[in-house]
Amino acid sequence: EKSKMYSTCFRTNLLASLRQCRSKLKILQGHLRTSCDVSDKTSTNSSSKLKNGPSLQDFLKSSTGELRPVEFGEQDTVPYLNQDDVWGGSRKVYFETYGCQMNVSDTEIAWSVLKDSGYQRAESVHDADVVLAVTCAIRENAEQKIWTRLQQFRAMKLRRTRDRPLKVGVLGCMAERLKKDLLEKEKSVDLIAGPDSYRDLPRLLAVTESGQQAANVMLSLDETYADVMPVRMNTGSPTAFVSIMRGCDNMCSYCIVPFTRGRERSRPIHSILEEVRVLAGQGIKEVTLLGQNVNSYRDMSEQTHQLADSPTNLSAGFGTIYRKKKGGLRFSALLDKVSQVDPEMRIRFVSPHPKDFPDEVLQLLRDRQNICSQLHLPAQSGSTQVLQRMR
Questions:
Q1: 94-98 mean pLDDT
Q2: Helix (H, G, I), strand (E, B), or coil: what is residue 98?
């Protein structure tokens, strides 16, 4: 009887345990169904989102959903900087210019860009918040001067207080050639900008405010600063420089210009004439047209100029390994129009290459009284075999 009683109790407890397990299993199954339903809905939503995913417009800041053509001279916006960041806020900038006349012209372009961004010009390096050295890389002596000057700038930075820091930038050909050395070895340099990056100076200076170094040494195939009116640094001088082209395509064995200033491109003639008219209105008595090789000037900005198929004719006795260029408004036409802006204004030009010297330019020198009877020709003696090995 006791065994029967124990058996009955065991069956009773076993059945109770099974009922509890069955009820818990039902609860678990309910939870699983709910989880599966949510997962299916999430999967469906994710699939639909991927199928109808975001377009390029969703990634463009403040996009209206429509693309529009970019206007000539329009500045690109920087997503991580607003207008207040790139505004100079009356900070003073001091320029030191080394090297050729082209660097003098570049200084005036860089100053025009910064002036439009709210910067003021400092008369002394000790009054400046920003010091920009416009450099030359043609001669070793010119580069050595810059290295020495950068050491002096470093000492000036150390003497400045934290609430009035000094920013130092290197612009021009040396920045293009020695960009890595300037940023890694010379810790006093905050920014470097190549000859085609002067429009970017306000952004570069804004980046340095966070303690970072900034650099832009990209060379351009079309930058001529045609829409930038240079601001003259020496307002008391009766002479002025006007850049008509940038870069060079000659690729001479001993010359670094194509690697520091890029490929040759010419400024539109209407832009040059407008600048000369402004200078005439300011009382300038003499203008020098600047270019690495002014004789190869070729304005292709207008359709009618591009359709012209007359090739470049080399001077007698000269040859070239390059293909002859066709079309465009040539230097003789530019010189003719510039000389007519103000008959009382003297006109000079540097530097023409002997191989590209056309007879039309010589005829203008003879016929126009305000075109100075002066030629500045680059000449250098050397061994033909050595120059060939240098390539």
A1: 95
A2: coil
* pLDDT over 60 (residue 74): no
Continuous H helices in 52-119? 83-86, 101-116
Question: What CA–CA distance (Å, rounded) separates 54 from 42?
Answer: 18
Residue where the block lists tokens 């061994």: 383
Q: Work out whether the CA dihedral 171, 135, 160, 122 comes out positive or negative.
A: negative
Rg (CA), the chain: 35
DSSP codes of every residue in 251-267: --TT--HHHHT-S-EE-
pTM tops 0.85? no
Query: What's 311's DSSP letter?
Result: B
Distance CA 290, CA 351 (A): 7
User: For the segment 10-43, what is each residue's pLDDT rounded down to a tens digit?
Assistant: 556 556 666 666 666 666 666 566 555 555 555 5
pLDDT above 90 (res 284): yes
- The tokens for 296 are 């190869």
**DSSP letter at 326?**
B
Beta strands in the chain, from DSSP E residues, in sequence order: 92-97, 120-121, 130-135, 167-172, 191-193, 214-216, 239-243, 245-246, 265-266, 286-290, 298-299, 329-330, 346-350
CA 182 to chain centre: 18
Pick the closest to residue 102 from 379, 351, 336, 376 (CA basis). Answer: 351
Q: Residue 172: which H helix or E strand, with range?
A: strand 167-172
290, with CB counted inside 10 A (0-12, 13-18, 19+), is buried
Residue 120's pLDDT band (boundaries 50, 70, 90)?
A: very high
Q: Which residue has the tokens 């006109």?
A: 347
**Could you give the CA distance from residue 142 to residue 173 in angstroms, rounded to a whole number?**
11
> How far is Cα 96 from Cα 104, in angstroms, rounded to an integer?
10
Cα–Cα dist 378/356, whole Å: 12
Burial classification of residue 376, based on how many CB atoms lie within 10 Å of its CB (0-12 exposed, 13-18 middle, 19 or more buried)? exposed
CB 101 within 8 A of CB 290: yes
The amino acid occupying position 130 is V
Residues 6+ apart with CB under 8 A from 388: 253
Taking the C-alpha atoms of residue 135 and residue 112, their distance in angstroms, rounded to an integer, is 18
